[in-house]
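Structural prep section.
Before we set up the soaks we want a predicted structure of the protein with flavin mononucleotide in place, mainly to decide which crystallisation condition to try first. Input record follows.
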Amino acid sequence: MKNILTRFLNLTNLLSVNHYQILCENEHTMMKILIAFYTSTGNTKRIALSMKKVLENYDIDLLEIDDYESRDLSGYDLIILGSGVYLGVVGDKLIELVRNALNFPPKYACFYSCQSKEPYHNCFKPIKEAAEQKGSKYLGEFHCLGEPFNYYSGEEYVEAQKKFDELGFHPDKKDLENAKQFILDIIKQV
Ligand SMILES: Cc1cc2nc3c(=O)[nH]c(=O)nc-3n(C[C@H](O)[C@H](O)[C@H](O)COP(=O)(O)O)c2cc1C
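Run finished without errors. Recording the tokens verbatim:
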């Protein structure tokens, strides 16, 4: 009798855990996420694609910004905003996206890459100000190195490339894995 009772209790316990997990998964799967990014030389796109890959069970859209058009962002629970850093700030098309968006999502997070080893803590300032005005909650930020594109030619190219080679190629595999972990941590907060 005791055995039967124990097995019954174990089973109900198991069922409730599974039921809870299914509820959580469904809740997460129903979450709608937008990754919107600006890229000049492709580094940000690689990070965005890496994030999308780890979220394949979610309802997720990727938006590469290449204009200043105003967009209606209704229906998203979370927006992830990404860019390279250009003269100390993120791409202006991304800034305009946030400023001009209709129905900006209730929660947002940011990511960027830059060639400086020192992070640019203020590069998202204009975006944070605009998002705050729209009542969106900031969830966190990710950054990594991003190898710059060598626009130079001749001797200048060689000199610039020497400097860039010191950085190593970034974002590298580890950066992309870190980006995946970042986004998984963000999702837990939504
Ligand atoms: C026009 C231009 C300006 C840049 N300015 C900076 C800068 O001020 N500080 C920095 O650390 N990196 C700077 N970078 C390097 C980029 O931030 C870095 O390479 C980034 O990964 C580029 O991202 P993307 O490939 O998505 O455009 C600049 C790159 C470009 C093309």
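Observations: Residues 39-44, 84-88, 113-116, 146-149 surround flavin mononucleotide (CB under 6 Å).
Flagged for discussion at group meeting.
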